[in-house]
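To: structure subgroup
Subject: Chain for Friday's discussion

All,

I'm putting the inputs and outputs inline so they're searchable in the archive.
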Amino acid sequence: MQSDARQTDVPRKPSLNNTAPEDSLYRVILRNSIWLLGILTWLFGVFDRVYAIVIGEMFTLANIAQLLTVVVLFGGWLYLKPEDGTHNSDSVAFQDHTASPDWQQSHYMGTAQARMSELHHYHLVGQEYVLPFPYLCQIYHLLNLKHLETVHNFSLNNLRILDVKHFQPTAIGGKLQFQTVLESPLNILRFWRQAIVEVELTLHTPFTVELQIPVRDRKFINVIFNVLPLTQGEHKFFVDIYSNLPWPKPFLRFLLQFATSLTLLEDLPYLRQLAALKQHNLMRSSHPADSIQGTHHMMQLFYRYVDLYSALSCLEPAGKLLPDNSSQSAVAGG
């Protein structure tokens, strides 16, 4: 399979539609980690020279020359930031799709664009991927709350869902509010959010999902996912992150880009597992095993999606058939 070859004015994320998509993400994470380590090293060098000149009272021409050299090399290192395929505009996700002849898809794109325009001022990160999995697998993954505890157990450091507080259906989607808790006192997420917060997951359209995370001092981090089917077994996946955190934007962008790559790396085995199952059995409004396992409330938003869009031919999934109900139940839990 080949990704879309049309050119745009922004860098594009390399396609991950090879036999080992993890390899591309491993390379991205490794390059970014080396670059970040270099930044820390050069900062140490700058502070060391400044300390020697100011605190150590070694105000000599040699020390001044060394400081200037370190600063210039540090600037060059910043300029050598590895290409990560991100885009600066949150409208890039629709550049090739807003002219769609399908009036329904065009309407959905407009709805998503309106929401993204509301948050445009806070846009920090945009990433684009082509993934070799059916579109439905990504939607199922995004709307399944349980996967936050299982699939992302490492990156979220044992985050737990305490309770699903409220579900509100809308004309073309729905909203689900749920409480999450950071059980570990060493969880790095505690730097910007409380231990217990109420998160909102919104299905805006059959292509667009938004995750709203409140942080300290009435700040927020919003993530908008756009999932656009390309073929029966391939889709484009766009991740746009918005925040009003008062942190230095270059550092915040790098941190969020790294987090996005890491979470997608965790997603790939789960998406591959979903792709191996019968897709049509996922398009159910409920499953008896969910009630037994107590996961029905965590799947309410996906069931809303099924009720609204299972009959749309443009979204009709294609793929292998689920071997039995027990297999679907296992996947639903992540």
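Points worth raising on Friday:
The chain has two domains: 21-79, 92-332.
Residues 1-15, 97-101, 316-330 have pLDDT under 50 and may be disordered.

D.
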